[in-house]
Specification:
- 39% of the residues lie in helices and 16% in strands.
- The termini are far apart.
- Strands 15, 16, 17, 18, 21, 22 and 23 form a seven-stranded antiparallel β-sheet that branches.
- The chain is α/β, with parallel strands linked by helices.
Length: 751
């Protein structure tokens, strides 16, 4: 009997948020994801003993969780613990900015009091406005906000606990004791995260794997020039960074830390961001790692053979992806990025059972396709971030996961396994003769190198490391009998310091640790145009501060450039580009001529922003703009997703100045406008002033008059694709686009 094996690999990772000076975590996301995701993602499996899974725990995340369990604190906790009467104006502004950083639809709006506080805060998050807004908050409001911000991050599966339920039921008029109670509950959950994973690993229900300690991009750490293998024209840093010895150290330290924490050494590794190169893989194999995982596009480029899919995402040559491969001394598996992205980005808006059945249907189809090709034991690897997507799901994804796990457990021909279990039964039967150097995002390293900000960060890292190597060489030469041999070893790995002792050794070890933290991938994730968040300046500060600490640790003068921000102030939105001028395209759904849309604004789905990065979807790009009287929209669709688009409705969702929705069928034949004056959506109109068409692309035109806007006003909108019962995609993700309505003298005004 043919059987399909499914390996879920949940990658658990957060940046290293600790301020190296104060020891306080500047951002609360390790704590909040622990209380909402890290504990329950493992604990839920106790109800499904036949479901085996793999959890990739990054050592720097585990270190932070353990420190929280031992009493560490973060800025969110500090602000929560303060009495409202003691809050400074700056702290109030910080709270108004940070304490609403949660999914509004799932975590804020369902709770009447939290919703009231959000309404009181308002939409404008500029510092100037928040300073004025803070005066509207009473001590009662501040205290309620302090509790609600922490309360909603307790996972729904834990809310039946009487102490948690009491706080939800109370809802308002919280006191200082309530604040202390919610933080006490957080601490209890944090204390249970590591033991719960260890318990499940000991029983064999889960396998724990890890990543290099501070989550560096190993191929770039080995040699930044490797970036040009995938992108030959990419700009490189001025100084070529080559430190394979650091890559080795990050791997070794990661494996050792997980072994010290859990009592067992991991056999598998998720290289940070699925980033691989032949040199990096060899280092992992030398460290005793038996298997690693990366993305299907890396496999495609390694095989030099396209892994083809139809319009529904079904593989035409599934036997190429759904199997392990051998590369040198390493076993490798490759994630199905369509199935992984459906969990990460698509299913959140679906009814949970329908989403689970859709995934099961796809798995059954894969099993049948493989059986038809004589493969009796294929492996589907579903690999994604294990924490970031769930706040977009109803009930934090619990209903979806329970439905999915229950359906898998009922199947005789589909089994959920750990990666290690599968490889022990079915080792690779095919080998790769070459391995493409790339990551799980588009099989390249563009996120972390190439942009001037990224390259500046690499140059500063190179400069700091070069100084530290020289200091280490000088010290070890003075304290070694065989100076020349020791100098060579010191350059290759600072672990040579373990053979020495004294205050200077401790100082150098501390300096190297700061450098290793700065080698992490998260800093360059937020540099450049691809991603942006409210915390950009803090990430920039932390990266430079760790490099500054290297100099300070060993008494060296700090270069001035480390005191200057790398991130540009007022950095533009990563995914939205404003129009350059007026446009007036023909609405025929065709790419009629080049200049029709050249002055239009653009929304880039591949630069969606945020902590997650989507690699597949229906929409390839969105153009927008206007003339003096009409708004225009164009949607470009991935060729492989054309059939999915044809089943969807396009929605121009206008949030301001009036709440309106223009809904058009994908073929442009049916167009309706709905208005919401506060009493629900009502049909408004649909006439000749609105037109749409779809041939090569989808185009839509609607008059500003129909949108009830006048020249000089600003329209704020987003674009949604939906079916009758669910939202498929929304752009820009987590935000809106602003477009000024031009006046008659537009040509004389700056756009």
């Amino acid at each position: 009997m043919s059987k399909l094996y499914v390996a879920f690999v949940w990658h658990m990772h957060q940046p290293y948020y600790k301020d190296p000076d104060s020891g306080v975590y500047l951002m609360p996301w390790v704590r909040l994801h622990a209380t909402k995701d890290y504990y329950d993602m493992a604990a839920i499996l106790e109800d499904f003993p036949d479901i085996h899974q793999t959890f990739n725990l990054v050592p720097s995340l585990v270190e932070q969780i353990r420190e929280y369990a031992s009493g560490a604190t973060d800025r969110g906790m500090v602000l929560t613990q303060k009495s409202p009467s003691d809050l400074t104006e700056d702290e109030k502004v910080e709270m108004l900015s940070v304490f609403f950083m949660a999914n509004r639809e799932r975590l804020i709006l369902p709770h009447r009091r939290f919703k009231e506080l959000l309404k009181l805060r308002g939409r404008d998050e500029s510092e100037q406005v928040l300073r004025k807004t803070s005066g509207k908050f009473s001590e009662r409001d501040w205290r309620d906000l302090q509790v609600w911000f922490n309360l909603v991050w307790i996972d729904p599966s834990l809310r039946s606990d009487p102490s948690v339920r009491r706080l939800f039921d109370k809802a308002t008029d919280f006191n200082e004791g309530d604040k202390a109670e919610v933080l006490r509950i957080h601490r209890l959950i944090l204390e249970g995260v590591i033991p719960k994973h260890q318990e499940l690993w000991n029983t064999g229900q889960i396998e724990i794997t890890t990543s290099p300690f501070y989550h560096p991009i190993l191929p770039l750490l080995c040699d930044t020039n490797v970036a040009r293998e995938a992108l030959p024209t990419t700009a490189l840093p001025e100084r070529r960074f080559q430190a394979p010895e650091d890559a080795k150290e990050q791997i070794e330290r990661g494996l050792q830390y997980i072994e010290e924490t859990f009592g067992k050494r991991p056999k598998g590794m998720w290289p940070s961001e699925g980033s691989v190169s032949p040199q990096a893989v060899e280092l992992m194999a030398d460290a005793g790692v038996e298997w690693i995982a990366t993305d299907e596009e890396v496999l495609t480029k390694s095989l030099e053979e396209v892994i083809r899919r139809d319009s529904e995402g079904r593989l035409k040559n599934p036997e190429r992806l759904y199997r392990p491969y051998q590369f040198g001394n390493m076993q490798m598996i490759f994630r199905d990025h369509v199935l992984s992205d459906r969990i990460g980005f698509v299913y959140a808006t679906w009814p949970p059972r329908k989403a689970a059945e859709d995934l099961m249907g796809r798995l059954r189809t894969i099993r049948e396709d493989l059986a038809g090709r004589g493969m009796e034991h294929g492996l589907v690897s579903i690999i994604l971030d294990g924490e970031n997507c769930w706040e977009s799901y109803e009930n934090d994804g619990i209903d979806f996961l329970r439905a999915l796990y229950g359906k898998i457990a009922e199947q005789e021909k589909i089994e959920a396994v750990t990666v290690g279990e599968y490889l022990e039964k079915f080792p690779p039967e095919q080998s790769l003769s070459k391995l493409h150097a790339g990551s799980w995002i588009n099989a390249n390293f563009r996120i972390w190198i190439g942009h001037p900000e990224d390259n500046r960060a690499w140059d500063l890292l190179h400069q700091t490391r070069e100084m530290l190597v020289e200091e280490t060489k000088h010290f070890t030469a003075e304290h070694a009998k065989d100076a020349e041999n020791t100098i060579t070893k010191a350059i290759k790995t600072p672990s040579i310091l373990s053979g020495l002792s004294g205050e200077k050794v401790e100082t150098l070890e501390a300096a190297w640790r700061e450098l290793y933290i700065a080698e992490g991938s998260d800093w360059c994730w937020w540099y450049g145009d691809e991603h942006s968040s409210q915390d950009d300046e803090r990430f920039d500060y932390l990266f430079r501060r760790h490099l500054v600490r290297v100099y300070e640790s060993i008494g060296m003068e700090v270069p001035m450039e480390l005191l200057q921000p790398i991130r540009k102030i007022g950095h533009p939105s990563a995914s939205v580009y404003a129009p350059l001028g007026l446009i007036s395209p023909d609405i025929d759904g065709k790419w009629s001529y080049f200049y029709e849309w050249t002055e239009a604004g653009y929304i880039d789905p591949l630069k969606a922003g945020g902590a997650m990065h989507q690699t597949s979807g229906i929409v390839r790009g969105i153009h927008y703009g206007s003339d003096l009287e009409r708004f225009f929209l164009r949607i470009d669709v991935h060729a492989s997703m054309r059939a999915a688009f044809e089943q969807a409705t396009v929605v121009l969702d206008v949030l301001e100045p009036e709440r309106l929705r223009v809904e058009a069928s994908s073929d442009g034949e049916s167009i309706r406008i709905y208005a919401n004056g506060g009493d629900g959506w009502k049909f408004a109109s649909g006439d000749e002033t609105v037109s749409a068409a779809f041939v090569d692309c989808f185009e839509l035109c609607v008059s500003f008059q129909k949108l009830n806007v006048t020249p000089g006003q600003e329209i704020r909108f987003r674009i949604v694709l939906k079916t009758e019962d669910r939202e498929l995609e929304a752009w820009p993700r987590g935000g809106v686009v602003s477009l000024p309505v031009p006046t008659e003298d537009f040509v004389e005004e700056p756009w």
